[in-house]
Every structure is written in C-alpha cells, then in structure tokens.
Amino acid sequence: MMREPYLADPKETIQVIQRYGFRFQKKLGQNFLIDRHVLEKIIRAAEITEDDFVLEIGPGIGTLTQYLAYHGGHVAAVEIDQALLPILQETLKEYNNVTVICQDILKTDLAALADRYNEGRPIKVVANLPYYITTPIVMGLFESHAPVESMTVMVQNEVARRMQAGPGSKEYGALSLAVQYYAEAYIAANVPPNCFLPRPGVGSAVIRLKKHEKPPVQVADEALLFGLIRAAFNQRRKTLVNSLANGAGLPFSKEELTDLITGLGHGASVRGEALSLAQFGALADAVKEKLTESEAGGL
Questions:
Q1: What is the pTM for the complete model shown?
Q2: CB-based contact 45:189 (threshold 8 Å)
C-alpha cells in the first residue's frame, strides 16, 4: 500500500527543512503549502484519477507531489532547484510512481514527456507556481501547443482574477484574452497567506484552466490577433483607435482605423477593454483583409 500524504503537517515540513538545512530562495518564489484542505481542493479541482499522467511544476519538498502520486497514475515533477533533490529523494521514496526531473520548465519538452509516459495522450498540469514567473509558464505551455488537457495552478489572487475577467472590468486585459483564447478559466479556491511557509505577502488562488479542443474564436491570423490585443492594452486609457495607431505597427492612418472600428459596430471612442474575445477576433480579420487589399493594390 502506498503511504498516505503526510507533508501537509507544518511540523513535518519544518522538520524536513531543518534536517537538510534548506534555505528558501526568494528569487525562485519558494513558498511551500502547509494546509491539507487546500491540497485536497487542488486534487479535486484537477480531477486527478489513477489513470492520469500529471506534470507538476516546482514540487518544492514534495508536499503536493505526495498527493498527486497518491491519487494519480504517474507524476513527473520538474524542479529547477538542485538543493531540493536530496529532500525529494527522501520525501518521495515511498511513492514509486514519481519521476523527478531537475530542469527549467520553460526548457522542458512536454511532448516528449507525454510520449514517454502517457503514449502521447494529453497530460494534466498541476503546480504551486512561483508568482514572479506565472504568466511566462502558463502562456509558454499554451503557446507551445503541448499536449495539455488542463492546468490547475496556484497563482497570485490578482492574477487569477485577471485570467477569469470579462470585458469592462478593471482586471480585464491582455492576459484575460490570451488565457481565454486557449482555455476555460475557473477559480476553484481562494488561499490566504497563512497556508504557506514562509507566508507570502499577498493572497493566492487555485485556478483551473481547461484547454479548449479548439479556440472559441477562429481567426485568419493568430499572431495578428494577439498583436492587436497587446497594442489595445499597452495604453489602457487611450481609445482603441489611438492605441492601434501608436502601437500595432499597422500601415493605416487614424481615419482608416476609425473606419475599420466603426464598420464593426463600435463607436470611434471605444477602448480595448470594452471588446470581447469574439470582437477582437472580428477586428483581427477585418485588419487582415485590409492588409491583404493594400498589398494587392501595391502590386
């Protein structure tokens, strides 16, 4: 029988840290979970079953890893801090379905991992992410088109709200649109600072990102869509026309951009924060069509 997870006990965590003389590295955003209820919520939100191959990013001393191994099929835990490897060797020795990989997740070939451990089938990603690098990791996984079924991750509360936000709210922005293009976002739990060791200075949240089988918006040029979105939110207080004129690198005058935007049913003074993903998609296709016409006219 596999041992039940035990590291959620703060005393166990402190003992392990002291025994190895481990020192937290602020630059790596190391905050270890010490709350059993939160860990159980993560497992439920991620819908981990014994048939699942799970990728964990940043296992730390193995607290969440134990839960994933206990409930899942096979766990690949990617840890960048070599000082944690001997600790993981101890805390995971009774779990024979865990593979620890000392590597930077941004340089890890997820498709190869899926092929090796899951016959190429989509994998579930679960992580207590370092807050300083949350967005690069999440977007890197999506943009790589790796075989990911879902991500259930602990992030800063503010970032979780931004991922889930809709048009018109103050949290709504480029991250909201990028995440929602790839996945359905659902906040499963809010987590206070006292659930971590050491305590972070901000609240946290568990968010589940279930990847769409195909994007909810089909566009002719995906790169153009995201370029327009970035330009629209780089200067939030400006109108969409001015934001695109100043930051999108388009060969159009303000008048032409105004005509494009009003032609889609928006007012000339509309701001990017008012547009939904579908409306940005329509804008991207209209811009693409005009670019194509301009290029043809220049031949």
A1: 0.91
A2: yes
